[in-house]
Every structure is written in C-alpha cells, then in structure tokens.
C-alpha cells in the first residue's frame, strides 16, 4: 500500500483545493461552504520518483459537537494514525486564529511529522510575510503555497517526501473497481465499513451524510478490490447546485469508471422509482452489476418471503434483470462476504469472449426452434451469422438481411438464448443488428484496404 499524506485544518482554509493540486486532478469537491468534506477521501499523488496517497479530511472544530463535527474529528484522527506525514493547512489571508492554535496544540500531541502549508499566498512577493505569522504555532517552518495556482507546492512536496517510506505499489491494472451506489440512507457507507472492517465512512441517519466519492482498497488473497462509496442519489429536481450536486456527479463518474456496480436497495422500502433510474443508467453505461438488498435483518420473513421479494424486485428493476442478487445486513455482516464472490463472477462474465463458432451454434439452435418473423408481404428475416466484436460489456454483431424485420420480441428471444446457453450472468449483453448493406460496405472497405 502507498504511504499516506494527511491534510488537516479548520473549515474553509482550502484543504480540498490543495488536495486537487497535490494529486494533479479535480476529484475533491471544492465549494465555498463549511463542512463540504466530511469523510476522509484518498487521492493518488506523485512527486519526483515517489508515489503516495493524499487524504483529504473534514474541517476540524473542537468546541462544537453538533451534527457531523464529532465524526469529522474521528475521521481526521484515523487519517493521522495511518499517515507518514501530515500537512496542516492554514489561511494566509486570515492569519493565525484561535482555531489554528487549538489544532496546532492537538497536532503536537500526535506522533506524526507535521508540515505547515500557508494557503492562499497567491502573491510570491507577499507570501513570505504572510507565512511568517505562523511561526507562532510552534510546528516549525511555515511554507507559503497557493492551492489555486500551485505556487510553492513543489517546495512543500520536496520536504514531504523526505518523510515517506519507500514502497513498491501494487499494480493498479489488477484492481477490480467497484462503485457502491444507491439512494440516500440505504446503507452504502455501512456496507463499505463492513468490507473494510473499520469506521472508514461516516454513518448517520441524516440524509446526505456522504458527499464525495470515498474509495478504499480491500485485498482477498491475491485480488485487490477498490471500493468506492458514493453520495446518495436523489431525484434531479430535489438537488440544488452545491455540494450535493457535485457529489452526485462524482457518483455518476464512479459508475462509468467501475468494473462492477453494487446497486444497494433498502429492503424495507423496496425498489423505488429512483432505483429504477439508477438501474437504467448502469445498463446504459454497460457496467456489470450486483443488486445488494441491504437491511434484510429488518424484514419479517417466512418460507416464501425471499421468493416473493425477488419477483417484485426483478419486476421493477427489469433493466438489470441479468444482475445477480444478494440479501445482506451491513449492520450484522450477514452474507456481506458473498458479495465479493458475486463481484468476481460478474467481472469474469463482463470481460468474457466467446468464439465465433460457438456464437453461431447458439444462433442455429435458436432459429431452428423459433424461426425469424415473416411480414404480411412475405419477407422473412434471416440471420446470416454472428460474431463477438468486443467485451466490457460483451457485444455480439448479428449480420442479417434487414434489421427492420426483427421486432423487439424476437430480439429479446435471441438475447435469452445467448444467456441460457452461454451464461453472461451479472453483465449486460449488447446485440448489434447489422443489415446486408452495412455488411457489404464493410466487406468493400476491407477489400480496398487489402489492395492498398
């Protein structure tokens, strides 16, 4: 695992802006409002020949125990516990405050080296004078930086990497990326904590607790999983521009980047209209999917409950009827380990390739049992052959005389035959119906290329 650099400071001093600068991206949500960052969020960083993880934490406030502030302090302490070095971010424009003094006193009690980054020093001429005010914090030399423009961050990183141990990072190509998505308060953060075995994400009954995408690595045997907890996704009309808007955009980005999406459903509420929309988005993005029905321990059950619930679930989430389903309790840990097995299976099917001969054997049997439809004018659809053209998701091109001759019912029948004979559990399967004109054009193009 990569060494950790923890970013600490009071609210609105520009911690997330500096994280984006140090990590070379714009993944951390930046908004002019206190309390946007709550959980600790990890971003990959690189300087000279060293790789590390930058951990953004929420703004520290010690004299207030309302709402999320105690949880934020808990997450900041957890970040310091695993960090090789901490960067204490202060506001150069505001100068040292009582809150800065309180945080500095707390940091002196921790067993981690601390660097002071005096942010908002956009002017190189004035930066030194602004930074000099912070010698009084008693944590060593303050470094003037600008998270917005990048001034001074190189000098800061030169000092930071001197405290980092040398490591050999795991090969990121072998990671399975898993996005955990769902409506607010369905238990996504509880599920992440159950995987990791620690309080990695803040769990609260207050809707909208998680605002940014929180990622964590989990290893099982030789396989590494990168789990990404995302903000709860509400109806678009209910979302105002601000932290929640940015968090939901991060969630959609996590879906696009994922190998597998865990769509978490509240067992008590059942599948809602918003869950349907999320299922449709997952299918449209071509992502593998596992349906995780959480809070199963809160449902009164008899011998028929799971079967009845399963039918109702598939009836509403028909967009992902191919997804495997698991009924869990993140609170008790019931069947949580089984989710990783289903993730492995979904990834394997999502990346699977089938030979052209096997594809055409399935087509021959399917058309033998149920011939393509015939129009009133006597025109009948014909499938000449099929071949898999890509994976992630598996995509099969079917070359036919005229795609218009194949209605939705017959297209669904062909897809069912592929699934019944070849599997593809847990992944969408795309069929491309290509007409004779398209096929002739492709052949002519190939012939021209061969002559050249």
TrEMBL record:
Q: Which Pfam families match?
A: KH_dom-like, MMR_HSR1
Q: Which organism is it from?
A: Halomicronema hongdechloris C2206
Residues that hold GTP 1 according to the record: 9-16, 56-60, 119-122
* Superkingdom of this protein's organism: Bacteria
Q: Which CDD domains match?
A: EngA1, EngA2
Q: What is this protein called?
A: GTPase Der
Domain EngA-type G per the UniProt entry, residue ranges: 3-168, 176-351
Keywords associated with the record: GTP-binding, Nucleotide-binding, Repeat, Ribosome biogenesis
